[in-house]
UniProtKB/TrEMBL annotation:
Protein source organism: Streptomyces hiroshimensis
Name recorded for this polypeptide: Thioesterase
Domain Thioesterase, first and last residues per copy: 39-265
Classification via Gene3D superfamilies: alpha/beta hydrolase
Protein family (similarity comment): Belongs to the thioesterase family.
Listed InterPro entries: AB_hydrolase_fold, TEII, Thioesterase
Length: 291
């Protein structure tokens, strides 16, 4: 079994457990309830849960566990049709987080499309009366109100192929996999994910209550520094942005930028105070939305 493959025990008849479909595990068993903050990671467009497979090891004792979301159409869910709209996708993610009891002591990390989904999922959980994330980490993503002005999902296959190969969108950290056969299998998922992003329209809501940390990259054509800075208005707590060298996929390329990203995550998670159980939060400010 490859390190990229999750460890999953099939049910009688060969079916896979539902928990493993949404949140496949890549190694150690889940921690005991109350062991600390769980970091829930959201993939980028065309990506899979495997990009986060070694994060638990890198983040160490600052986090109780790292759980990566596996969306339909990829990995163990290859036979499922991918979502093409944000609203039902976010509802499905929120349903599963609640069902699996993952909405206690948790934080979110999302890269690119994953950041948008993490934010929307945080809003959806709040609307259901669930506890919010302890911290929201967004990476390589414009602020939500800046989405909806791109049309890559409408490109013909050849054009989408060139776009994907040009930014490394389907490589999951291994650029050697960016060959014609691999891309051909992944193009439908990438197209669906890009449609989720490009059809998305933000609607005004009060900011999330949790602190937020954002990561931008110097040579990112998808999310420029100012567009990442615009996330500041989406939190009623503290906001910190780190600007790193690299392109849109700095988090998958071995090197100093990935190391710094993981180091900053480890530090922020270690500084989170111990969760004191469910609390009722109050709105601390109401921004003047002018976007």
């Amino acid at each position: 079994m490859s390190p990229a493959e999750p460890l999953v025990a099939a049910l009688p008849g060969g079916a896979l457990p539902r928990d493993a479909l949404w949140f496949p595990r890549f190694g150690a068993p889940p921690p005991a309830v109350g062991a600390g903050t769980v970091l829930i990671c959201f993939p980028y467009a065309g990506g899979t849960a495997s990009v986060y497979r070694d994060w638990r090891e890198h983040l160490g004792s600052g986090v109780a566990d790292v759980i990566a979301l596996q969306l339909p159409g990829r990995g163990l869910r290859m036979r499922e049709a991918p979502y093409t709209s944000a609203e039902p996708l976010v509802a499905g993610i929120a349903d599963e987080l609640v069902r699996q009891g993952l909405t206690g002591d948790y934080a979110f990390f999302g890269h690119s499309m994953g950041a948008l989904l993490a934010y929307e999922t945080g809003c959806a959980l709040r609307e259901r009366g669930e506890p919010g994330p302890r911290h929201l980490f967004v990476s390589g993503s414009r602020a939500p109100h800046l989405y909806g002005d791109r049309t890559e999902h409408l490109l013909p296959d050849a054009g989408l192929h060139r776009f994907a190969a040009g930014i490394g969108a389907l490589g999951d950290g291994d650029r050697a996999l960016l060959n014609d056969a691999y891309l051909a299998r992944r193009l439908p998922v990438l197209r669906a994910d890009l449609q989720v992003c490009n059809d998305y329209r933000w609607r005004p809501r009060r900011p999330l209550d949790c602190p937020m940390t954002a990561f931008s990259a110097s040579d990112d054509p998808i999310a420029e520094a100012g567009e990442v800075e615009a996330w500041r208005a989406y939190t009623a707590g503290s906001f910190l942005r780190h600007h790193l060298p690299g392109d849109h996929f700095f988090l998958t390329a071995d090197g100093p930028s990935r190391e710094r990203l993981l180091r900053e995550l480890r530090g922020e998670l270690a500084r989170l105070p111990r969760a004191a159980g469910p609390t009722t939060t109050t709105e601390t400010r109401e921004p003047s939305w002018t976007y």
